[in-house]
Amino acid sequence: MGVVDWTNLSHALLPTAVRRRAVEMHLEPDRDVYPAGDPVGFRVVFRNRLPVPVVLRVESPVPWSWSVDGIDRGSRVADPLPDDSSRFEFAPRERKAFAREWHQRIRTGRREWDAVAPGDHVLRAWVTDRDRSLAAEATVHVDG
């Protein structure tokens, strides 16, 4: 008896829309309010809700990315993700969590970073598929 390739089987049996809905995603800052200059820690958490493996096709070897106030990875300097399709794989009911920090700065040049203004800032994360529909966001406040 051969070994079952659950990844290919689930990919073949589950339509794309079902696979996207099977994975839930949350963006969780470590708190809601930050003093100016303090790093903003956040986690991006994914969970496969199904009892079978789920595979999402992504457009980059980097399966997810993030932005602050619509600026990819907090940088206005062009630094695109590699353009090479890949797969973001989840075992049955698997949960994946990734931690990142944003230092309240926006990159404006090769070596230039500008501090953000006090106020609300929106962190957003998404799976790097074609339409970025699997996404989550949270608003944090930077005190003046």
Task: Put the structure in a nutshell.
The chain is mainly beta. It is built from two helices and twelve strands; from the N terminus they run ααββββββββββββ. A five-stranded mixed β-sheet has the order 2-12-11-5-6, with no helix packed on it.
Keywords:
three-stranded antiparallel β-sheet, 10% helix, mainly beta, Immunoglobulin-like, 144 residues, five-stranded mixed β-sheet, 2 helices
Protein architecture, described:
- The protein has 144 residues and is mainly beta.
- It has one domain (6-139): Sandwich (Immunoglobulin-like), CATH 2.60.40.
- The chain has helices at 6-13, 16-22, and strands at residues 23-29, 33-34, 40-48, 54-58, 64-68, 71-72, 86-90, 95-102, 105-107, 113-115, 119-127, 135-142.
- The chain has a five-stranded mixed beta sheet with strand order 2-12-11-5-6, with no helix packed on it. It has a three-stranded antiparallel beta sheet with strand order 1-3-8.
- The chain is elongated and about 60 Å long.
- The termini are far apart.
- 21% of the residues are buried.
CATH architecture: Sandwich
- Any idea of the CATH topology? Immunoglobulin-like
Categorize the overall geometry: elongated
What is the chain-wise order of helices and strands? HHEEEEEEEEEEEE
Name the CATH homologous superfamily.
Immunoglobulins
Content of β-strand: over 45%
According to DSSP, the number of beta strands is 12
How many structural domains can be distinguished in the coordinates?
1
Class derived from helix and strand content: mainly beta
Report strand order across the widest sheet: 2-12-11-5-6
Oligomer: single chain
Helix content: 10-25%
